[in-house]
Design brief:
mainly alpha
C-alpha cells in the first residue's frame, strides 16, 4: 500500500496500481475530463456499439481541445514526434486522404472507409492524452473491467441465468451468438477475449499478489473461447496466447523447439477433447475441399479464398497506386462479373477479410509497406519497455497480425477498436515508464 498525492490508498492489480475503495472518491476527483473520456472509451470497447461510438466521438473531441490548447501555449508533443508508430499512422492517413484524388468510389463510400481506417488515430491520441503512468493504469484497468464483465456475462448466459443488463431479442437464441452479451458476433468476442487473456497473463507476471487472479481471468477467457465460442480465428488466437505465454517463460535456447512442439501438441489435445473445436476445424477442412472442387464461394472458407483471389487480381492490374480509398468493393464486383451484387450485397461496404490485401488494393505497394511498417514500428517502439509491458504489447501485435490474415480487424468496428485502444494504452504505459530514461519529457500528470 502507498499514499500518493492526496493520501489515496492503492493496491496492485495485474501489475497495475488501482485505487482501493477508501481512496476511490478522492482519486476520482483528481481525474480530469481527459482521463475520464479515455477510461470511458476503454470500458466501452466491451459494451454495445452505441456506447462505443459515443466514446470514440468524445475521445476525438477532447483530443482536439487539448491539442489546440497545447498549440496555444506552445506545448509540443515531442514524445509523439519521436514515436515510430504514430509517424507511420499519420503517413497512412495522409496517403488515404491523398488517394481520394484518384479513387473511383462514391464520396459517401470513400468517406465511410476513411472513418473506418481513421480508428488507427486512436493509438497516437491515447499516447497523447495519457500523460503519466497513473493515467495509463486507469485506462488498462477499465479495459480489463469491461472484458471481465463480458466474460462473466457470457458464462452466466451459458448457465441460462437471466441478466438484466443484457438485452436480447425475443424468441430462440441464435446458436452462434447465444453466449455473446454485447458484441455483434461471436468472432469479435472470441478474438477480444483470447487477446485479453494474453494481456492479463503478461502484465501479471512478476506480481505475486495478483498472479493467481490474472491466471484465473486468463484461463476463464480462454475456456470461454474454446468451449462456448464457435469462432475458428478465436481458436487460433487462444492457441497462440498459450504458446506465447509458454515461450516467454522458458529459456531462450529451448524456444525454437518449443515454438513448433507446443502448438502441434496443444492443437491435437484440443481437437480430441473438445467436440465443438473438432467440429469447427473439420468443417473448415470440408469447406476448403469443397472450394477446390466446385469452387463453393458461399462458405466461410470459400468466400475468403474467393475474395483473396480477386484481390490479388486487382493488385496485379494496378500494383503501384492502387484504386484509392473505399474502392475495394466496386473493383472486386467488376472483376467478379454480373453476380457481384448477389455475392457481395447491394452496397459497397465489403472488405476482403484480409487487412494486408485491403490496404494494398486501396494504396498499392505503399499500402503493403505501410501495413508491414506499422507492425515493425510497434516492435521498435516497445524495445525499451519494461519486460511485462513489452511482452504484452508484442504479444498483442502477433495476435493482431494473425487476425489480419483472416479478417480486416483494423477496418472493421469493435474488434478493430479493441486492438487500437489496447495498443494505444500499452504504448502509453510503456512510454511513460521510460520517460525518465530519455530526453523527452511529456506533460505532467496533474497539469492540463
Amino acid at each position: 500500500m502507498e499514499s500518493p498525492r492526496g493520501g489515496a490508498s492503492f493496491y496492485t492489480a495485474f501489475g497495475l496500481k488501482v485505487p482501493s475503495l477508501n481512496g476511490m472518491a478522492l482519486v476520482a476527483l483528481k481525474l480530469n475530463l481527459r482521463v475520464l473520456f479515455v477510461v470511458f472509451l476503454a470500458l466501452a470497447v466491451s459494451l454495445p456499439i452505441a456506447l462505443l461510438s459515443l466514446a470514440k466521438a468524445l475521445l476525438f473531441v477532447i483530443a482536439l481541445i487539448y491539442l489546440l490548447k497545447g498549440l496555444a501555449f506552445r506545448q509540443q508533443p515531442l514524445y509523439l514526434v519521436h514515436q515510430h508508430t504514430s509517424n507511420v499512422i499519420l503517413l497512412a492517413m495522409l496517403l488515404w486522404s491523398a488517394s481520394l484524388l484518384w479513387s473511383g468510389a462514391e464520396p459517401e463510400n470513400a468517406l465511410t472507409a476513411f472513418v473506418k481506417h481513421g480508428k488507427l488515430m486512436m493509438i497516437p491520441i491515447l499516447v497523447y492524452l495519457l500523460r503519466c503512468r497513473r493515467d495509463a493504469q486507469w485506462a488498462i484497468a477499465a479495459l480489463f473491467m469491461g472484458q471481465a464483465l463480458t466474460l462473466v456475462s457470457s458464462w452466466l448466459m451459458a448457465f441460462d441465468i437471466p441478466l438484466p443488463w443484457v438485452m436480447r431479442a425475443s424468441g430462440p437464441a441464435d446458436p452462434l451468438t447465444q453466449y455473446v452479451p454485447y458484441a455483434d458476433s461471436y468472432l469479435d468476442q472470441s478474438i477480444m477475449l483470447a487477446t485479453t487473456a494474453s494481456l492479463v497473463w503478461h502484465l501479471g507476471r512478476g506480481h505475486r499478489s495478483v498472479n493467481v487472479w490474472s491466471k484465473c481471468l486468463a484461463f476463464a477467457s480462454l475456456a470461454n473461447v474454446l468451449i462456448l465460442m464457435p469462432g475458428r480465428t478465436g481458436y487460433l488466437l487462444a492457441i497462440v496466447a498459450i504458446c506465447l505465454a509458454a515461450l516467454f517463460g522458458i529459456p531462450a535456447k529451448l524456444r525454437p523447439v518449443a515454438s513448433i512442439a507446443i502448438p502441434i501438441l496443444l492443437g491435437l489435445a484440443l481437437f480430441y477433447t473438445l467436440p465443438q473445436f473438432q467440429h469447427r476445424v473439420g468443417q473448415a477442412a470440408q469447406e476448403l475441399e469443397s472450394y477446390k472442387a466446385t469452387p463453393d464461394v458461399h462458405s466461410s472458407v470459400g468466400a475468403r479464398l474467393n475474395m483473396w483471389n480477386l484481390s490479388i487480381q486487382a493488385i496485379a492490374d494496378k500494383p503501384l497506386a492502387g484504386y484509392g480509398i473505399g474502392n475495394w468493393t466496386p473493383v472486386i464486383k467488376r472483376l467478379y462479373g454480373v453476380q457481384g451484387d448477389a455475392l457481395f450485397g447491394a452496397g459497397n461496404g465489403s472488405n476482403p477479410h484480409q487487412e494486408l490485401l485491403l490496404w494494398t488494393v486501396e494504396l498499392g505497394a505503399a499500402g503493403a509497406l505501410l501495413f508491414v511498417g506499422l507492425l515493425c514500428a510497434i516492435f521498435m517502439d516497445t524495445k525499451a519497455f519494461d519486460p511485462p509491458t513489452k511482452s504484452a504489447a508484442r504479444s498483442l501485435v502477433v495476435m493482431l497480425f494473425i487476425t489480419c490474415m483472416f479478417n480486416s480487424p483494423l477496418y472493421d468496428d469493435l474488434m478493430g477498436d479493441y486492438f487500437c485502444v489496447a495498443l494505444g494504452i500499452l504504448m502509453a504505459l510503456g512510454l511513460r515508464d521510460n520517460r525518465d530514461r530519455t530526453n523527452l519529457q511529456p506533460a505532467s500528470c496533474v497539469t492540463d
